[in-house]
Structures are given as C-alpha cells and as structure tokens.
Design a protein that fits this description.
This protein has 297 residues and is α/β, with parallel strands linked by helices. Strands 1-2-5-6-7-8-9-10 form an eight-stranded mixed β-sheet. The protein has a two-stranded parallel ribbon with strand order 3-4. The radius of gyration is 18 Å and the shape is globular.
Length: 297
C-alpha cells in the first residue's frame, strides 16, 4: 500500500474506464423517477455507476430535496437553502419502489441543518411508507449526522431500517479540507449509538480513498470505526466531480483495494466492499445478504 501527492495526475487509468450501459431498462427507471417527481443520489452526485444501476433497475433515492445545506468539497450535490419538506414524497417513493419491483431499497438525503430534526421524521415516514407498500422490502438508510441529536437518530432507528449507514468519508486530518461542517468524533458517536442502542440494525460506514490520506491514517480510521461498533464497510476511489471540487491526489490500484479489504476483515468488519467503483450504496443488497465484498472494476 502506498500513498503519493502528485501535483499532476496522469490520465484516468484503465481500471477506471468502463462501458456505459443504456437501453430500455435504463430509460424505464429514468422515466419512473421523473414521473414520481423524485430525486436519486445517482443523478445529483454524478455517480459513475448510474448507467449500470439504472440498467439493472436499481437506484438510491434522495429525499428532502436536492439542495444540501452543507458544502462538502468532494460532493457534486448542489448546496443552498433547503426546500420545504414535501409530505407526499414518502408515498410517491413507495409507489416507485413497488413499480420497480424492488426488494432492497437504499434511501439517503441531502443534509438539512435548517430543519429542527434534520429530516429524521421524514426518513422514518419514508421507511414506513415503503414497508406498507411492499411488505417484504428491506430498507437501508444513509443518514446525515443530525448534528448529534440523539432523538433524531432514535426517530430513524425506531422505524426499523435493515441497515443504518453513515459515512465518515475520509480520515480526520482531511475533514477541514473535505467536509469542514462535519465533525469526525460526532460521526463516530452516531455509529456507536446505533451499535449499542439497536444491535439488530448493523451500522455501516464508508471511506473514499485518493484524497491524500496516508496508510497509517486509513488504519487508524478503520480501527476507530470498529471500536465504535461499525459492522459493514465500503471503500472506493474518490473521483473529482468538477474542476471546482477537490482534486484527486492519486488513483488507488485495484490490488490495493484488495489489500484493504483483507485488512478490514482481519479487524473484524463482517462485510466489506472494496474497489475503485464501490460507493456506499453500490450493490448494497449483496453486502447485506452476506455476499463477499464487491470488486467493481
């Protein structure tokens, strides 16, 4: 495992190039999302897996609007004042889940620091609406930190999602650069509260590699996650969404992702997805259903 700080990176390596699937299934999902007046993180965050996921009739839904009240320097989601909460959104999303015949659903949101509960009640309403509409659906939520509000976290946990995901994103030294409005320790406490408060709901978290972190920093961060009770882990390559975002420090070779997966498993993580194209919700159902880590190249 190695790290570097190149002022100029070479062109994107071969393992980060892929064909872009399209066709009838892709268009079908896109049409359903537009018809339901819904948002997906796939579209808003310019996820490199969007073509593949849409073509396989999967999507990660983005609730509470498409503008974030924070401005993380790695993220392509728009930021600005939040929109009014749409009380009909949970029902529309549940209808889309039913029409798409999804059995495993990932729901995330923009960060809404402007709301008293950070949007926790809306998360809970969405989980319950999905499970009412599709009784055997499994729901994973990827939540913000709710500014450390225990009651907000409990609101989401009491709706009984199958997995509670909250990403650290990077190592603590890079927080001021990459996500200045977040607090590393606060996120660890959130994961620990999930682990101790609802042991039947596995806590999940993820890191982007390639932002300038060192090997020792990655190891320390993974150790912090395990001490907090994190059970599922994703590791993926950071890709710069635009020239206005943080530059990529280095491209991590797939073999190094394999090495990190092995190290994480040895630390005690139950499920690990580690690879250049891995994102927090990519193949999430496979990770939950005890499938071996995903190497998406």
């Amino acid at each position: 495992m190695s790290t570097s700080n190149h002022p100029f990176l070479p062109r994107k390596p071969s393992w980060l190039r892929r064909r872009l699937p399209s066709g009838a299934d892709f268009e079908k999902i896109n049409d359903m999302i537009q018809k339901g007046r819904l948002h997906t993180v796939c579209q808003e965050a310019k996820c490199p897996n969007i073509w593949e996921c849409f073509s396989h009739q999967t999507a990660t839904f983005l609730i509470l609007g498409n503008r974030c009240t924070r401005n993380c320097r790695f993220c392509a989601v728009a930021h600005g004042p939040g929109e009014p909460v749409d009380p009909d959104e949970p029902a529309r999303l549940a209808t889309a889940v039913s029409e798409m015949k999804l059995k495993y659903v990932v729901v995330t949101s923009v960060t809404r620091d402007d709301l008293p509960d950070g949007g926790a009640a809306h998360f809970a309403a969405t989980i319950r609406a999905i499970k009412r509409k599709v009784f055997d659906a499994q729901v994973e939520v990827l939540i913000p930190d709710f500014q450390g509000d225990q009651n907000a976290l409990d609101t989401v946990l009491n709706a009984e999602p199958e997995v509670l995901n909250h990403n650290l994103e990077t190592v603590p030294r890079l927080y001021k650069t990459a996500r200045p409005e977040a607090v590393y320790e606060r996120s660890l406490v959130l994961i620990q509260r999930v682990s101790t408060g609802k042991p039947n709901i596995p806590p999940k978290s993820g890191l982007m590699l390639g932002l300038g972190e060192t090997e020792s920093e990655i190891l320390e961060t993974l150790s912090d996650l395990r001490k907090a009770g994190c059970r599922f882990l994703t590791l993926g390559q950071y890709l710069q969404p635009s020239k206005n975002h943080l530059p990529v420090d280095r491209y991590v070779h797939p073999e190094e992702f394999d090495t990190w997966e092995k190290a994480a498993r040895e630390m005690g993580f139950e499920r690990v997805a580690s690879g250049p194209f891995v994102r927090s919700s990519y193949h999430a159902a496979d990770l939950y259903r005890h499938t071996k880590g995903i190497h998406a190249i």
